[in-house]
Specification:
Helix content: 25-40%
Largest sheet: 4 strands, mixed
Number of helices: 3
Number of strands: 4
Oligomer: single chain
Radius of gyration: 11 Å
Strand order of the largest sheet: 2-1-3-4
Order of helices and strands: EHEHEEH
Pfam families: Glrx-like (PF05768)
Protein name: Glutaredoxin family protein
CATH topology: Glutaredoxin
Number of domains: 1
Structural class: alpha+beta
Distance between the termini: 20 Å
Organism: Tahibacter amnicola
Length: about 80
């Protein structure tokens, strides 16, 4: 997977972010941070967060289709 979406179960913003990523046609893995104390510490107040595993870049919420497109285009 080239992207990870850090999220929580039952988070409507996370569902929105997943829908935007899916609409953009990218493959991503959803990771529930509630299952990992270290991830919860790192991402707890920032979720949803889309991480590019190749570059390490992260896109914090809030984002929309245009900002997601800029993120996917790279630096």
């Amino acid at each position: 997977m080239a992207y990870i979406l850090y999220s929580l179960d039952d988070c409507h913003l996370c569902e929105e972010a997943a829908a935007l990523a899916a609409a953009a046609g990218i493959a991503f893995e959803s990771v529930d941070i509630g299952d990992d104390a270290a991830l919860d510490e790192r991402y707890g107040v920032r979720i949803p967060v889309l991480r590019d595993t190749a570059s390490g870049r992260e896109l914090d919420w809030p984002f929309d289709s245009p900002s997601l497109a800029r993120f996917l285009a790279g630096p």
